[in-house]
Structure formats: structure tokens, C-alpha cells
Amino acid sequence: MKHRTSCLIKYTLLASCVLLLSGCASLHIRTAKNYFDDLYKRIPYKTDGGYRVIDIFYATNRDILDEASSSPTFGKDIAKSMTYGRLNVKIDPRVSIGLMLPDKLKRHGVIGVQEVSKLADEAFIKELSDAVAASPHKSLMIAVFGYKDNFETTAIKTSYFTYLLDINTPVLLFDWPGDQAISIGGYLKARGYANSSGAYLGKLIDDIAKKVKPEKIWINASSLGCQVVCDAFEYLYTNPDYADVEMEIDHVVFAAPDVGQDDFDGQFKNELASLSKKLTTYVSSNDEALLMSGFITGKQRLGRQKSKEDDQAEEAKDMLYLKSLSPDKITLIDVTPINKASYGHGYYLESPEFYDDFYMRILDKEPNVNRRLYLLKYKDKTDYWVLQGGNK
What we know:
42% of the residues lie in helices and 23% in strands. With 392 residues, the chain is of the alpha/beta class.
């Protein structure tokens, strides 16, 4: 009897296991291939010994100093038409961007633009379209940098940013003549060129949206490059030849934006709501470069919110007034705790925490997924995120 009971229990357990296994077999299980197909694949690059060679596209409204050359040299003034092409940059992944820019490293061959090719308009669109179509998410990243940068410097910065961000997407540098004299007059001239360059960038964005047709367009702008983007959006918004209600930028990211806060409040919010799905703005209270910009222009800059001596709740009032302009689209992130860059301005090239968070923005994850962020609330619907360092 005991033997029969024992056998019955065994058969029952065996039958249960079979049913359980058959049930598991009927579950939808994601294979490794399907899982990795959904990821933003890592950026491809070539190697040159211990160096990395990054390929990017470029479009610039600079004047060309040697029209006949297939490898152009660019000047410091605005041309009547754009120049398009591809280039590649050799970088040393062991050297931080803060040490990559001095001339002596370029002379020693540690970094530098290796090759610049020029493409006709149709060839440029064709090669850019092919690159977007071959990318995992049919995406394009447009990068715009700021004051003091010549063509070579913006190319190096863009390549370094591309390598550290590590998302497999074609990257297009929009380069404008921001490398004016290091003086008040030179800065004001650069600001004028930033305003004038907006129409060039706006036309480029419209051409890309209509001819290349990426599924996702991301715009990464920093410092005075953010002003170029603002003017580009205003151009698209107000020009009936280029305005298109169906054209939307997936995500615009501003880092240390050298844009007047009043100008942003009064103008850019309308263009943002019409042409972009989301805007993430990184701000800091210890950005000395934007403090000087505020002195020169007489206007508070969007990228510098109050001073570090001010009460945090008072700072929150200003920051979250901006967020209230379009609460569903604007994300504000205070990077003061991690901002160790020179003059408090270059964190968008030097801070690993910034790259981590930028990656999360592009992946469109909820902010609380990033454990470096904490939420500061002032009142209902007035909140913003603060980015902490790794020692918190």
C-alpha cells in the first residue's frame, strides 16, 4: 500500500512537472538576438594602433579659403552657401577632452583631423541617407558647438562626444564661424554670426527631414551653439516655405546654453512646442563663462540659474518657471554638483555623469531610472532634477 501511494505521488509530481514545462514552452521568450536587436548598438570605429578613428558628416556655412581643393580649409566668415562632406578624426581614448585641444598634442599626432572630403549636395544627401538607413534606429544626431571653436576644434569635439556617448547613429556636425577674437568685441561678433547661422541650420534641418527622412532626429547643442539652434527653430517656425507641421525633432538637448532667458521665455517656447517633441536643458549655478556672457549682454543666461550663494528654493522658482512654459516637453537638470570643468562651462565634454544622463535622455527613459538624479520639488508641478556625482 505504501509502495502504491509512493508511486502515485511520483507520477503526480511527474505529471505536474510535464504540465509546468509545457506551459513554460508556450511562454514568449525573447532570444538573445531579439534582445540585442532592440538595443542602441555601440558606435562603430576604426583603430589606428592605440587610437580610435571616428567618422562623421559635416555641414558648414564658413567661407572656403581654397575653393579648388578637394580637402577644403575654412575661414572665419559666413559664406553665401553651405559646404557638405565627411571627415574622420583620430582620438586617444586615454586622454580627456580637456587635454586633447592644445596645439602641441596635435603637432605630436596624438589627435587631429585626418581627412576632410567635400561632397556635392546630392551626393551628401545620398550618403547621409544610406548611413541613416543602415543605423539600428534610423536616426541622426546633429551637433552644434559654440564660441571660440574653429572647424578643426569642432570636428575634434564632435568626434570625442560621439565616441564617449557611444550610440550607433550617424553624427552630423553643423559648424559655424564661432572662432572670433577672444574679446568683448569678438564675442559680440560671434553672437551676431550665431543669429545669422540659424537660417542655414534651419534650412539644413528641413532638407534632412524631407529628403533623408530619419525616424529620429536628435540635436545636441552647447554654449553659444544653442543660440544657433534657437534661431534655426525660429526660422523654421516663421518661414512659410519651410514650416511643416508634420516635421518634428525627436529630442533637443541644450548644455550650458548661452541664450538669454527672456528670449527663451518669449520666443523659443513657441517654436519648441511646434517642432520638437522634447527639450532637455542642463543648467548650472557655477558657470563662470555664462556669468561673463550675462555681464556683456546685460541679460541672464538660460544655462546659469542664479548663483551658488542664492537660496535653493529661490533658484527653483526661476528654473521651474521655465519648465511651466511647456511642462510635458521641457526637462531641466541642475548639474552644479558634478560641474568641475574649467570656468564651470565645459562639463558637456568632461563629465562622465553628463554622458550617462544624456544617454538616458536619448533612450527616452523616465528620469528616475538614472540613480544619479534626485528630484527637488518647490510646489505642485514645479520640480526639477539635480544630477549628483558618483560619491553620493
